[in-house]
Amino acid sequence: MKALWGIVTHWAAWLGVRWRAGIVLMVFAAAAVLLLARAVQLQVTERDFYAEQGGDRHQRVQTIAAHRGMITDRHGEPLAISVAMHAIWIDPQVIKAHPEAIRHLAGLLELSADQLIRRVQDRPSRRFLYVARQVRPSQAKAVRDANLPGVGLKREYKRFYPTADVTAPLLGFANIDDEGLAGVELSFEQLLSGTPGKRRILKDGDDREIADLGVIQAARPGQDLALSIDRRLQYLAYRELVQSIDENKALAGSIVLMNVSTGEVLAMASAPSFNPNNRASIEPDVTRNHALVDQFEPGSTVKPFTIAAALESGRWAATDTIDTAPGYRRVGGFTIHDHRNYGELDLTGVLEKSSNIAASLIAEDIGAQTLWNTYRDLGLGQITGVGFPGEASGSLSLWRDWRVADTAAHSYGYGLSLTSLQLASAYVALANQGRYVPPSLLRRDSPPETRRVFHAETADRVVGMLRSVVSPTGTAPKAAITGFQVAGKTGTVRRLGKEGYSKTDYNTVFAGVAPASDPRLALVVALHRPTAGKVYAGDVSAPVFQRVMSGALRMLNIRPDDLRDLPAGQIAGGAVPASMSPIDHGEAG
Question: Which among 254, 300, 360, 468 is annotated as catalytic?
Answer without folding.
Answer: 300
